[in-house]
Amino acid sequence: MSRTYEISLKNAKTSAERQELEFEQYTDLSEYEEAIQTIHSRRLMAEARELFVFIPGLKWEQGQFGGRFLSEESLSKLHHAVKTQKESIRDYRLRLATAATGIIGALIGLLAVWKK
Predict the structure, then answer these.
(1) Which of 47, 50, 98, 100 has most Cβ atoms within 10 angstroms of its Cβ?
(2) In this model, does residue 80 exceed pLDDT 60?
(3) Is the pLDDT of residue 29 over 60?
(4) CA angle, corner 76, sides to 71 and 34, nearest 5?
């Protein structure tokens, strides 16, 4: 898409045409950026719900093209809370695996002693 705008800008004859094309490109890019922010916010919220992460007072913003997305501050808070929860789950699973490995090792040792 930007390539099309570049060609159109090269072919623009007046500065008014050039300004109009630049504004058009800015508007299109803003619309895409807003859509990306909306999708990112929804995905992060879905992930937070799956992990039972709750952050009170998240602020939502309404975009000029109709999209709703988390403010930068709220997005950052939620991202860090989700990351912390994931790390906590990973640490729990690692401790559980370590304990299971220890129990299995102890059982093998008992079986070896018992068989003699």
Answers:
(1) 47
(2) yes
(3) yes
(4) 40
pTM recorded for the entire structure:
0.70
Q: Are 70 and 60 in contact (CB under 8 A)?
A: yes
In the three-class reduction of DSSP (H, G, I as helix; E, B as strand; rest coil), residue 26 is classed as helix
- Contact residues for 67 (Cβ-Cβ < 8 A; gap 6+): 34, 35, 37, 38
Which of helix, strand or coil describes residue 59?
Answer: coil
Structure tokens at 56: 């009170």
Tell me how far apart the alpha carbons of residues 108 and 106 are, in angstroms, rounded to a whole number: 5
- What are the tokens at 18? 């050039």
Using DSSP's 3-state secondary structure scheme, residue 55 falls into: coil
Question: pLDDT (tens digit, 9 = 90+) per residue, 51-67?
Answer: 999 999 999 999 998 99
